[in-house]
Write the structure tokens for this entry.
Amino acid sequence: MTDPAVPPGGSGPRVVVAGDAEQAAVVVARTIRAAVEVDPSCRLGLATGATPSPAYRLLVHELATTDLFVDVTAFLLDEYVGLPTGDPASYRATIRRELTDAIGVPAERVHAPVTTGDLEASCADYESLLGSGVDLQLLGIGRNGHLGFNEPGTPFEWTTHVVELSATTRSDNARFFASPDLVPTHAVTQGLATIGRARHLLLAATGAAKAPAVAAALEGPLDTACPASSLRLHPRVTVVLDRDAAGDLS
Ligand code: F6R
């Protein structure tokens, strides 16, 4: 069956506007599931944050009693620096709790940048682990247009690197911590060039707060001021929005 969320390639981003966030989650979950049905040992790039959670809940609901994902390898986009190993706010703990443990992806095949010790070496290690890139990369977008933790101004050609989080990102992510002071100041993130090595990019955005960033990414200048505009350089991109996030598109 042809998946309508999968663009043919080479035609620019395909934009799917769903009625609401739940319907957007259905499209995202279906696209992830279809990738694994086509290739059960595929390499999936996963995002954390609020946007993908409803899609992850759907996948857990549909797949908790199956072994469809047992041969999948998962790679996170990014990880905070400075959180104790296993901290519930760490992205590795979050993805295991929200998705991968429940659908049977073995913990040893859930990869995130290592953010203790020599961070430069860890960035290089993560690049080697990612090799030629993942098969499907799920992405969210920051209000400031970030992808992963590639904040505005990040060159498109950067690979995995250490980043100082912007004030916007730290304040947006404070909801996942007991207090704003506890939000780490730094993270390790896949670079835009790393993300661009994925065969298929799947960007999800919901809610009116994301509308300006979505419009800048899809219709604004191709510029590092909006890191997500780099998506337009990729041959196979699907953008799944709800009506609110699509609200500033012309
Ligand atoms: C998360 C990530 C970030 C988020 C973005 C949107 O792994 O890399 O780029 O996707 O900040 O976050 P939410 O979905 O919480 O609005």
Notes: The beta strands are 14-18, 43-46, 73-76, 78-80, 110-111, 136-139, 161-164, 186-189, 200-205, 237-242.
